[in-house]
Amino acid sequence: VPCSEPRKIRKAQQSAADCVMYDLEDGVATSCKEQARRLLAEAAAGSRRGAEVGVRINAIGSGLEDKDLCAALQAERLDVVLVPKVNSATDVQHVCRAIDRAGRSAVRVIASIESARALVNIHEIAQADARVDALLFAAEDYCADAGVTRTATRRELYHARAVVANAAHAFRLQAIDMVAMDFRDADVLCEEAEEGAAMGFTGKQVIHPAQLSVVQRCFAPTPAAVLRARRIVDGFRRSCNTGRGAFELDGKAVDMPVVKCALRVLRR
């Protein structure tokens, strides 16, 4: 949510979002940057209890990032800083040093992958600092940087999305999928969210409160999936108790990889 627009801030605060990300970057006009910083502390303080509070600063090297960090780190409530347009580990480390100097030990970092260079450097970005909690894919900036033509099929984004999701899991981070820009089309949003969940993303960015219920439903396991996962885990325990490993359930073989997937569903 742009941190320069009080009306939108109030709507975000009343939403069921898991994390409200107050934007100081692309959603805020250059002439309104200082106003957004002034509104930040009050906006963060007014966020719904139970929702994480985040701030998206301006990119490292923009000349705006240090003022943004100063404003963010002075806010009483702050859980995470989103670093946009990360190209290398040094971008993330710049932010982490500022967090350390401010003594905000609990604040985490999300690294936003928005360029071809970031995709090449993604492993070093993921390991840049222990504060890194998630990798996020920003499709529109990536397309602009890499010369990719956006289509309704999203086929042209499959490789980049898969690399981000895989790297996140490799280093035990959250993987946050791209924004569905047409926020009035619930069918496209649902299709995109289900696709992202199937690719291994653990969450998705939203830019309008109307998108929340669709995304949260698509990323949560269905009741049928939970029931099947419980049957797999229970069956595995019974099988182990009788001295066997793999077993049969509903005519299909169940072995350890299947059990691991079931456990992941139950944890979620």
TrEMBL record:
Substrate binds at residues 56, 114. GO terms for molecular function: lyase activity; magnesium ion binding. It holds the Pfam family HpcH_HpaI. It comes from the Eukaryota. Residues 1-209 form the HpcH/HpaI aldolase/citrate lyase domain. GO terms for biological process: oxaloacetate metabolic process. Its cofactor is Mg(2+). Keywords: Lyase, Magnesium, Metal-binding. Mg(2+) binds at residues 114, 141. InterPro entries: Aldolase/citrate-lyase_domain, Citrate_lyase_beta/mcl1/mcl2, Pyrv/PenolPyrv_kinase-like_dom, Pyrv_kinase-like_dom_sf. The keyword Hydrolase does not apply. This is Beta subunit of citrate lyase. It comes from Coemansia reversa (strain ATCC 12441 / NRRL 1564).
